[in-house]
Amino acid sequence: MFVVNAILHALQISLFMLWEVLWPLAFGFLLSAMIQTVVSKRAVAGALGKPDLKGFVLACGFGAASSSCSYAAVAVGRALFRRGASLVNAIIFEFASTNLVFELGLVLLILLGWQFVAAEFAGGLLMAVILWILFKVTLRQRMVDEARRQAERGVFGSTHEAHGEMDMSITDGRFLSRVFSPRAFTAISHTFFMDLKALYVDIGLGFLIAGALAAWVPNSWWQAFFLTNHPALNEFWSPLIGPVISMLSFVCSVGNVPLAVVLWNGGISFGGVISFIFADLIILPILNIYRKYYGGRTALYLLAVSYAAMALAGFLIGGAFQLLGLAPTNHHVAVFETQPSWNYTSFLDVAFLVLMAVLAWRFVTTGGIEMLRAHARRPEAGAKLVRDPVCGMSVDPATSDEKVEYMGASYYFCSAGCRSTFEKDPARYTSQVVQVEHAGHLGDSRVMAARPGGKMELHPSAIDPVCGMSVDPDHAEYRSFQKGETYYFCSAGCKETFDKDPGKYINRRKTGAAG
User: Fold this and answer.
1) Distance between CA 90 and CA 84 in Å, rounded?
2) Strands (E) located in 6-153
3) Contact yes or no for 135/88 (Cβ under 8 A)
4) I need a labelling partner for 57 at 20 to 30 A (CA). Which of 63, 167, 348, 383 fits?
5) What is the pTM of this model?
6) What is the pairing mode between strands 478-482 and 442-450?
7) Which residues does 365 contact at the CB level (< 8 Å), separation at least 6?
């Protein structure tokens, strides 16, 4: 009976915490989905090519506007790297994606208070700066080349890769129409539930583990572990041990906030909480994905520089808040004892549950379930994948059941929902090359781009320097950056060939242009 009561007590604490943050979680996911609906991942890669100050700022901004799922962030990071983003900016993007997002701030606000929100965002930017400096000082081109060769192999890392690839952004039309149109309603519902699907395990585990630790581990043990009887040592020790606890917890993204509440209640320092939250990108499963994506040596390097950046950022931001008198001193967390009652929290929880039901209806009726099944399918090794023109997911033509012939070309889809969306307005998702002039890297060649309503417009196109094919720069998936110039490719194969000997193709282009 004692064991049963202990389990029930832990579950009760978990549910109390979940009820307190249900509406902030839903609201954060909704805001994130709306932002992802108007920010195209395909446009991001072209902006992150150079590891300079501009690239750093854009990486932070685009990361903050993306999904907070750590696994999806890592998958997107590799995709950006393969499409031409620098390794530095791809990693900065990942850290911004998991530390500078709305849902994280809202949950922190409810469970721990505004000071932690301010420290999380200020510290997140500080950590990104430290990480950028460490990359500048320690990252060698040989390791970047090694990581790129491994990344180009496309080794499967996790089932979240399809979610990371998904891009249902709406980039045409006025801003309000892009957010409030029926098409936007569909995109928001799909992004909302894809994000939720990617994170529900981590969120659930986070609350369950937090409830168990709060119920079963006495505060005296935590206080001894965090050296609370020695305040000076506590300030140094906590930011160092916080990331280690996070790394061993296997919980990432918003899911580690409930654990942070337990640690704060147990005596970890203010800076220690911040460094703990930062560390969701070095948990053991993520490190294993880094190994698959970039190779073992690069994975160990990313672990070392990431740990150094988050520990130092946690220590510095904790010290700064202490000096400014902003760091809270009361470690008692009332959420463990707060039972649900009919107040504004319950009202908002119910309201957002109703909103989630509406989004779920839209998700289900527009092919969302089929898309989930498609995301769960692991592509065969060596499969020649194409991109679903609606959602951006990679699809194997050999196994896809959804195919449309349009203007002499074949288009493949992850689900019936995407196929149906395409068939309603195929011109929105396609472009047809009508003229190719090999006049240089980005010169006089043109593509005839189909726009909504069937209107055709001429746009400048780039020439793939390897195969000579005309490529639309606005939608090119693969890019390389050499000596201040951007080169666009029709496929990963052409990009890989170019990267092995860029001088050969650059000189050939110049020779051809001169002739």
Assistant:
1) 10
2) none
3) yes
4) 167
5) 0.75
6) unpaired
7) none
Query: pLDDT of 371-394, one tens digit each?
Result: 777 766 666 655 566 778 887 777
pLDDT in tens, 281-336: 898 888 988 998 899 999 999 999 999 999 999 999 999 999 999 999 888 877 66
Residue 511 falls in which region: left (phi positive, over 0), alpha (psi -120 to 50) or beta: alpha
Chain centroid to CA 235: how far?
A: 31
Task: At 439, list the tokens.
Answer: 């006049």
**Rounded Cα–Cα distance for residues 268 and 246 (Å):** 13
The partner residues of 387 in beta bridges, in order of sequence, read 394
The one-letter amino acid at 390: V
434 pLDDT band, cuts 50/70/90, is very low
- Residue 123's nearest CA partner among 138, 105, 135, 107 is 105
Q: What is the amino acid identity at position 374? A: A
**C-alpha pair distances (Å), 496 with each of 83, 149, 153:** 10, 8, 10
Which amino acid, residue 171? T
417-439 core/surface letters (b: 16 or more CB in 10 A; e: else): bbbebbeeebbbbbbeeeeeeee
**Look-up: residue for tokens 């009820």?**
19
What is the CA angle 170-171-175, rounded to 5?
A: 85
- Per-residue tokens: 143: 């390791």
For the sheet containing 456-463, what is the strand order?
A: 431-435, 442-450, 456-463, 470-471
